Amino acid sequence: MKVSVSQTRLVGPPVPQEQFIPEHLFFYLEKGVMSGYYGHKTYTLSSGEYGIARKNRLSKQQDIPYDGDIEKIIFVFDEAFLKAFQKKHRSEAVRFNATESFVRIDDRSLVPAFIQSLKPYYNEKGQIDQEFFDIKREELLLILLRLQPTLAGIFFDYAVPEKIDLEAFMNMNYRFNVSVERFAFLTGRSLSAFKRDFHLIFGQTPSRWLVQKRLQEAYFLIEKKQQKPTDIFLDLGFETLSHFSFAFKKQFGQTPTALARQSKIPPASIE
């Protein structure tokens, strides 16, 4: 089977490589299959499909292996660009009632034609030259608003998250590998208010609680669900297997691999 190679063309300013979406993103999948977990729901895109991942949401994305390359184009609609666009075109924000974190666009004509029009603008690195960033982003945004005018309610809404139930939010989202500052922002709090409220609810610091919560879940998944350490550490918010193993041993006195053997997971599956 051919090994899939993943290629991403990013149009717009760079975005942090983390499980948080700070700006609206337009995804177009040229080849392959990809899956994204946005707002507690999984969305899958196949070749030729596209949509918008809304900002200020937690997300996990992965390319699904298949016999072929994976190619995607991502347009970043950052707030500065959107405000300039709105001023130029006198666009008004309308109410967008849907709460989905990923919005699919149902069109088989204008958007595919636009994607084809990008080809002359790619440089030798397969990226669009920076001087064409805003021109092509403006063109795409005009197309999207023509296809679905209510999208203005997403793009031109610059409000920050409102204060929400911190305990419920953290118990639902502790697996996401984002900073404490991001968690504070998403719960509608300053960092100092978040830490104060967090200690009142959980009795410890956010960083310590997150590690312990993730490790407890890891122990359960290995011992009770027979899952391999190598299959769960990323999903639980650990960046590397070595960091996960070190923290696990410090917490429980044994490595996750040792627990897996003790739980009678086949040795060949552990390594």
Automatic annotation (TrEMBL):
Q: Which residues form a coiled coil?
A: none
Which part of the chain is the HTH araC/xylS-type domain?
A: 164-262
Q: What are the protein's GO molecular function terms?
A: DNA-binding transcription factor activity; sequence-specific DNA binding
One protein family per Pfam = ExsA_N
TM spans (from-to) = none
Keywords, alphabetical: DNA-binding, Transcription, Transcription regulation
Xref: SUPFAM superfamilies: Homeodomain-like
Gene3D superfamilies annotated for this entry?
A: Homeodomain-like
Q: What is this protein called?
A: Transcriptional regulator, AraC family
- The organism named in the record is Chitinophaga pinensis (strain ATCC 43595 / DSM 2588 / LMG 13176 / NBRC 15968 / NCIMB 11800 / UQM 2034)
